[in-house]
Protein backbone atom coordinates (compact mmCIF):
# COMPACT_ATOMS: atom_id res chain seq x y z
CA UNK A 1 0.00 0.00 0.00
CA UNK A 2 1.23 3.49 -0.88
CA UNK A 3 2.14 5.65 2.12
CA UNK A 4 -0.82 7.90 2.94
CA UNK A 5 1.13 10.89 4.22
CA UNK A 6 -1.60 13.32 3.14
CA UNK A 7 -3.87 12.15 5.97
CA UNK A 8 -1.17 13.04 8.48
CA UNK A 9 -2.73 16.03 10.28
CA UNK A 10 0.48 18.06 10.48
CA UNK A 11 1.37 17.34 6.84
CA UNK A 12 -2.13 18.21 5.62
CA UNK A 13 -2.19 21.51 7.51
CA UNK A 14 1.13 22.56 5.98
CA UNK A 15 0.17 21.32 2.52
CA UNK A 16 -2.95 23.48 2.71
CA UNK A 17 -0.71 26.56 2.90
CA UNK A 18 1.07 25.90 -0.40
CA UNK A 19 0.22 28.09 -3.38
CA UNK A 20 -1.04 25.12 -5.39
CA UNK A 21 -3.45 24.38 -2.53
CA UNK A 22 -4.73 27.91 -2.01
CA UNK A 23 -4.73 29.12 -5.64
CA UNK A 24 -5.38 25.82 -7.41
CA UNK A 25 -4.02 25.23 -10.90
CA UNK A 26 -2.91 28.85 -11.25
CA UNK A 27 -0.72 28.33 -8.19
CA UNK A 28 1.18 25.50 -9.90
CA UNK A 29 4.01 27.05 -11.95
CA UNK A 30 4.08 24.09 -14.37
CA UNK A 31 0.36 24.42 -15.19
CA UNK A 32 0.77 26.66 -18.30
CA UNK A 33 3.03 24.00 -19.81
CA UNK A 34 0.51 21.26 -19.01
CA UNK A 35 -2.33 23.17 -20.67
CA UNK A 36 -0.34 23.20 -23.92
CA UNK A 37 -0.27 19.39 -24.10
CA UNK A 38 -3.85 18.69 -23.05
CA UNK A 39 -6.30 17.54 -25.73
CA UNK A 40 -9.66 19.26 -26.22
CA UNK A 41 -11.59 18.14 -23.12
CA UNK A 42 -15.09 18.62 -24.51
CA UNK A 43 -17.16 15.45 -24.25
CA UNK A 44 -14.37 13.33 -22.74
CA UNK A 45 -14.55 10.70 -20.02
CA UNK A 46 -11.57 11.41 -17.76
CA UNK A 47 -9.92 9.76 -14.77
CA UNK A 48 -7.67 11.81 -12.48
CA UNK A 49 -5.15 9.66 -10.60
CA UNK A 50 -4.22 11.37 -7.36
CA UNK A 51 -6.81 14.11 -7.69
CA UNK A 52 -6.09 15.89 -4.40
CA UNK A 53 -8.42 18.86 -3.93
CA UNK A 54 -10.02 18.12 -7.30
CA UNK A 55 -8.68 21.19 -9.08
CA UNK A 56 -8.19 19.41 -12.41
CA UNK A 57 -11.54 17.63 -12.14
CA UNK A 58 -13.31 20.97 -11.86
CA UNK A 59 -11.19 22.50 -14.64
CA UNK A 60 -12.12 19.63 -16.97
CA UNK A 61 -15.79 19.91 -16.06
CA UNK A 62 -15.71 23.66 -16.75
CA UNK A 63 -14.12 22.92 -20.13
CA UNK A 64 -16.79 20.52 -21.29
CA UNK A 65 -15.72 17.09 -20.02
CA UNK A 66 -18.59 14.62 -20.01
CA UNK A 67 -17.61 12.77 -16.85
CA UNK A 68 -14.78 13.00 -14.31
CA UNK A 69 -13.58 10.33 -11.89
CA UNK A 70 -11.18 11.62 -9.26
CA UNK A 71 -9.17 9.05 -7.28
CA UNK A 72 -7.05 9.61 -4.19
CA UNK A 73 -5.74 7.61 -1.24
CA UNK A 74 -6.34 10.49 1.17
CA UNK A 75 -9.71 10.90 2.87
CA UNK A 76 -8.76 14.45 3.83
CA UNK A 77 -8.01 15.34 0.21
CA UNK A 78 -11.25 13.83 -1.04
CA UNK A 79 -13.26 15.57 1.67
CA UNK A 80 -11.83 18.90 0.51
CA UNK A 81 -12.48 18.01 -3.14
CA UNK A 82 -16.12 17.18 -2.43
CA UNK A 83 -16.50 20.38 -0.44
CA UNK A 84 -15.28 22.44 -3.42
CA UNK A 85 -17.24 20.51 -6.08
CA UNK A 86 -20.97 20.67 -6.69
CA UNK A 87 -21.34 19.24 -10.19
CA UNK A 88 -22.75 15.72 -10.55
CA UNK A 89 -20.45 15.01 -13.52
CA UNK A 90 -17.57 14.68 -11.02
CA UNK A 91 -17.30 11.53 -8.90
CA UNK A 92 -14.61 11.15 -6.23
CA UNK A 93 -13.47 7.76 -4.94
CA UNK A 94 -11.04 6.59 -2.28
CA UNK A 95 -8.42 4.38 -3.95
CA UNK A 96 -4.91 3.08 -3.38
CA UNK A 97 -3.39 3.36 -6.85
CA UNK A 98 -1.14 0.39 -6.06
CA UNK A 99 -4.29 -1.78 -6.05
CA UNK A 100 -6.32 0.10 -8.67
CA UNK A 101 -8.77 -1.61 -11.00
CA UNK A 102 -10.52 0.31 -13.79
CA UNK A 103 -13.03 -0.77 -16.40
CA UNK A 104 -11.35 -1.45 -19.77
CA UNK A 105 -11.77 0.82 -22.79
CA UNK A 106 -13.58 3.46 -20.74
CA UNK A 107 -11.58 6.69 -20.62
CA UNK A 108 -10.53 9.18 -23.27
CA UNK A 109 -7.96 10.77 -20.97
CA UNK A 110 -6.07 9.72 -17.85
CA UNK A 111 -4.41 12.55 -15.95
CA UNK A 112 -2.05 12.54 -12.99
CA UNK A 113 -0.28 15.41 -11.25
CA UNK A 114 2.78 14.79 -9.07
CA UNK A 115 1.67 11.33 -7.97
CA UNK A 116 3.62 8.63 -9.84
CA UNK A 117 6.81 9.13 -7.83
CA UNK A 118 4.94 7.75 -4.80
CA UNK A 119 4.00 4.51 -6.58
CA UNK A 120 6.18 1.43 -6.02
CA UNK A 121 4.34 -0.93 -8.40
CA UNK A 122 4.32 1.55 -11.27
CA UNK A 123 4.40 -1.04 -14.07
CA UNK A 124 1.14 -2.54 -12.82
CA UNK A 125 -0.50 0.89 -12.59
CA UNK A 126 0.59 1.74 -16.14
CA UNK A 127 -0.91 -1.54 -17.34
CA UNK A 128 -4.19 -0.67 -15.63
CA UNK A 129 -4.21 2.82 -17.17
CA UNK A 130 -3.42 1.48 -20.65
CA UNK A 131 -6.23 -1.06 -20.51
CA UNK A 132 -8.70 1.54 -19.20
CA UNK A 133 -8.09 3.93 -22.10
CA UNK A 134 -10.11 3.84 -25.28
CA UNK A 135 -8.27 3.38 -28.57
CA UNK A 136 -6.41 6.64 -29.20
CA UNK A 137 -6.83 7.75 -25.58
CA UNK A 138 -4.29 9.99 -23.86
CA UNK A 139 -2.37 9.82 -20.59
CA UNK A 140 -0.81 13.07 -19.43
CA UNK A 141 1.16 13.21 -16.21
CA UNK A 142 3.66 15.14 -14.17
CA UNK A 143 6.03 13.62 -11.66
CA UNK A 144 9.04 14.72 -9.70
CA UNK A 145 12.01 14.64 -12.06
CA UNK A 146 14.52 11.81 -11.51
CA UNK A 147 17.28 14.34 -10.92
CA UNK A 148 15.18 15.76 -8.09
CA UNK A 149 14.44 12.36 -6.53
CA UNK A 150 17.94 10.89 -6.94
CA UNK A 151 19.87 11.96 -3.81
CA UNK A 152 19.48 10.06 -0.56
CA UNK A 153 19.89 13.36 1.27
CA UNK A 154 18.38 16.02 -0.99
CA UNK A 155 19.27 19.66 -0.52
CA UNK A 156 21.12 22.51 -2.17
CA UNK A 157 24.87 22.95 -1.90
CA UNK A 158 25.75 26.64 -1.95
CA UNK A 159 29.13 27.84 -3.21
CA UNK A 160 30.96 30.87 -1.85
CA UNK A 161 29.61 32.98 -4.71
CA UNK A 162 26.06 31.94 -3.84
CA UNK A 163 25.66 29.55 -6.76
CA UNK A 164 23.45 26.58 -5.93
CA UNK A 165 24.07 22.98 -6.96
CA UNK A 166 21.79 19.95 -6.60
CA UNK A 167 23.38 16.58 -5.77
CA UNK A 168 22.67 13.73 -8.19
CA UNK A 169 24.57 11.03 -6.31
CA UNK A 170 22.82 7.65 -6.29
CA UNK A 171 21.07 8.50 -9.56
CA UNK A 172 21.50 4.96 -10.90
CA UNK A 173 20.36 3.40 -7.63
CA UNK A 174 16.61 3.17 -8.07
CA UNK A 175 14.07 2.54 -5.36
CA UNK A 176 12.82 3.90 -2.08
CA UNK A 177 13.73 7.38 -0.89
CA UNK A 178 12.75 8.72 2.53
CA UNK A 179 12.80 12.50 2.61
CA UNK A 180 11.67 15.36 4.81
CA UNK A 181 9.09 17.49 3.04
CA UNK A 182 6.65 19.39 5.27
CA UNK A 183 7.11 16.53 7.76
CA UNK A 184 9.75 13.87 8.33
CA UNK A 185 9.58 10.47 6.70
CA UNK A 186 7.89 11.07 3.34
CA UNK A 187 8.40 7.96 1.17
CA UNK A 188 8.99 8.35 -2.58
CA UNK A 189 10.26 6.09 -5.36
CA UNK A 190 13.25 7.07 -7.48
CA UNK A 191 13.56 5.89 -11.09
CA UNK A 192 15.88 7.07 -13.83
CA UNK A 193 14.45 8.95 -16.78
CA UNK A 194 15.26 5.96 -18.98
CA UNK A 195 13.29 3.65 -16.72
CA UNK A 196 10.22 5.89 -16.89
CA UNK A 197 10.33 6.10 -20.68
CA UNK A 198 11.03 2.40 -21.21
CA UNK A 199 8.13 1.46 -18.92
CA UNK A 200 5.83 3.52 -21.12
CA UNK A 201 7.22 2.07 -24.35
CA UNK A 202 7.01 -1.51 -23.03
CA UNK A 203 3.38 -1.00 -22.10
CA UNK A 204 2.60 0.05 -25.67
CA UNK A 205 2.16 3.79 -25.31
CA UNK A 206 3.22 6.22 -28.02
CA UNK A 207 5.32 9.02 -26.52
CA UNK A 208 4.07 12.37 -27.78
CA UNK A 209 5.85 14.91 -25.56
CA UNK A 210 8.49 14.90 -22.83
CA UNK A 211 9.45 18.08 -21.00
CA UNK A 212 11.93 18.65 -18.20
CA UNK A 213 10.03 21.61 -16.88
CA UNK A 214 11.72 24.83 -15.87
CA UNK A 215 10.47 28.41 -15.46
CA UNK A 216 10.80 31.06 -18.14
CA UNK A 217 12.61 34.32 -17.45
CA UNK A 218 9.27 36.11 -17.31
CA UNK A 219 7.95 33.61 -14.76
CA UNK A 220 11.04 34.19 -12.60
CA UNK A 221 10.50 37.95 -12.79
CA UNK A 222 6.90 37.47 -11.67
CA UNK A 223 7.85 34.90 -9.02
CA UNK A 224 11.51 35.28 -7.93
CA UNK A 225 11.33 32.15 -5.75
CA UNK A 226 11.40 30.10 -8.96
CA UNK A 227 14.94 31.28 -9.75
CA UNK A 228 16.57 28.18 -8.21
CA UNK A 229 14.54 25.93 -10.54
CA UNK A 230 16.82 26.84 -13.46
CA UNK A 231 19.66 24.96 -11.72
CA UNK A 232 17.95 21.57 -12.06
CA UNK A 233 14.63 20.22 -13.33
CA UNK A 234 12.21 19.49 -10.50
CA UNK A 235 9.25 18.31 -12.59
CA UNK A 236 8.88 15.92 -15.52
CA UNK A 237 5.91 16.40 -17.89
CA UNK A 238 4.88 13.59 -20.23
CA UNK A 239 2.13 13.15 -22.82
CA UNK A 240 1.54 9.65 -24.18
CA UNK A 241 -1.17 7.99 -26.23
CA UNK A 242 -2.68 4.54 -26.63
CA UNK A 243 -2.46 3.61 -30.34
CA UNK A 244 -5.62 4.26 -32.32
CA UNK A 245 -6.79 0.85 -33.56
CA UNK A 246 -9.82 2.16 -35.43
UniProtKB/TrEMBL annotation:
It holds the Pfam family Methyltransf_11. GO terms for molecular function: S-adenosylmethionine-dependent methyltransferase activity. Residues 47-141 form the Methyltransferase type domain. It comes from the Eukaryota. CDD domains: AdoMet_MTases. Coiled coil: none annotated. Gene3D superfamilies: Vaccinia Virus protein VP39. This is Methyltransferase type 11 domain-containing protein.
Amino acid sequence: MTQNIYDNENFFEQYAQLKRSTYGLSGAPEWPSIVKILPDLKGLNIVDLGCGYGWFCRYAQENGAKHMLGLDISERMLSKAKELSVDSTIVYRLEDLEQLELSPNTYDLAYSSLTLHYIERLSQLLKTIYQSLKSGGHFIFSSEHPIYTAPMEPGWSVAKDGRKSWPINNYQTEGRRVTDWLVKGVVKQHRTLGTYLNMLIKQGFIIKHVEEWGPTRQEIIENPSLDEEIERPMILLVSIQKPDRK
